């Protein structure tokens, strides 16, 4: 999946004013689907309900509609915990129920829907410019690169590492198995490996478990902590940037 950030300034500053303006023009419901909870977000409020291995997409939609009852929204952004291609999940999630591949989210919500990888959505909301690596510490390990506004979700967490995968050591299973002290050491090691391999200008460490780090890895000189609230900004940008592109096309030819 690729998504171009329109109007991104060369110095990398986020134009939050444009995002806010777009969100007022078109109300976006942002749904962040995680392995332990589903977060339902708007510019004014945040609600959640538990997820887990029995959560199917139909149950997710029902839960979201229940929490969002009374809210007015025109479109929906969904952060999905798995690979997404051309706006559709292409593999079932590791920590949820089945039935996500091929599910018609737009029909279920009765609204236009955009689906992206959940780490990509949080990365999009965190992005300031240049070449950024996003690593999300949560139920698993989310990962995304953004290079000059081009979003490239990755599945680094499932690559081999030690006696398992990266996710086995720095995801929720690793935190429970090794304890917080060893888990932090594994996080520092994994972050160092990915930075050495991918050479980002900046690394954002986000996800729900970033709060369990006493401090960011010492060797990571261009690191900053992310925030789950950035998923909201990413969900808004999925629609706001499209509006900006459409407006630009009316007066000039879009550059590719």
What do you see in this structure?
The chain is built from seven helices and 14 strands. With 256 residues, it is α/β, with parallel strands linked by helices. Strand 9 (141-147) and strand 10 (150-154) form a beta hairpin. The longest helix has 27 residues, at 172-198. The protein is globular and about 45 Å long.
Record the SSE blueprint.
Layout: H1 16-25, E1 28-33, E2 37-41, E3 46-50, H2 57-67, E4 75-80, E5 84-85, E6 88-89, H3 105-109, E7 113-117, H4 118-126, E8 131-137, E9 141-147, E10 150-154, E11 160-161, E12 164-165, H5 166-170, H6 172-198, E13 202-206, E14 223-225, H7 230-251
Parallel strand pairs: 1-4, 4-7, 8-13, 13-14
Antiparallel strand pairs: 1-2, 2-3, 5-6, 8-9, 9-10, 11-12
């Amino acid at each position: 999946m690729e998504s171009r950030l329109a109007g991104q300034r060369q110095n990398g500053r986020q134009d939050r004013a444009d995002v806010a303006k777009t969100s007022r023009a078109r109300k976006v419901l942002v749904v962040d689907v995680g392995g332990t909870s589903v977060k339902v977000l708007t510019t004014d409020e945040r609600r959640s309900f538990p997820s887990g291995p029995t959560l199917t997409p139909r149950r997710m939609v029902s839960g979201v509609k229940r929490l969002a009852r009374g809210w007015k929204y025109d479109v929906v952004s969904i952060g999905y915990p798995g690979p997404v291609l051309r706006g559709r999940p292409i593999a079932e999630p590791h920590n949820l129920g089945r039935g996500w591949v091929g599910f018609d989210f737009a029909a279920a919500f009765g609204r236009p829907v955009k689906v992206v990888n959940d780490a990509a959505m949080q990365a999009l909301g965190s992005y300031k410019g240049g070449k950024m690596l996003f690593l999300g510490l949560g139920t698993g390990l989310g990962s995304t690169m953004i290079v000059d506004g081009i979003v490239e979700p990755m599945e680094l967490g499932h690559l081999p590492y030690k006696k398992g995968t990266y996710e086995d050591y720095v995801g929720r299973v690793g935190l429970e198995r090794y304890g917080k002290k060893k888990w932090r050491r594994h996080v520092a090691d994994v972050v160092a490996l990915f930075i050495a391999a991918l050479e980002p200008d900046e690394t954002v460490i986000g996800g729900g478990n970033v709060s369990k780090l006493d401090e960011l890895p010492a060797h990571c000189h261009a690191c900053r902590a992310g925030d789950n609230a950035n998923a909201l900004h990413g969900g808004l940008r999925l629609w706001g940037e499209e509006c900006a592109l459409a407006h630009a096309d009316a007066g000039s030819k879009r550059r590719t």
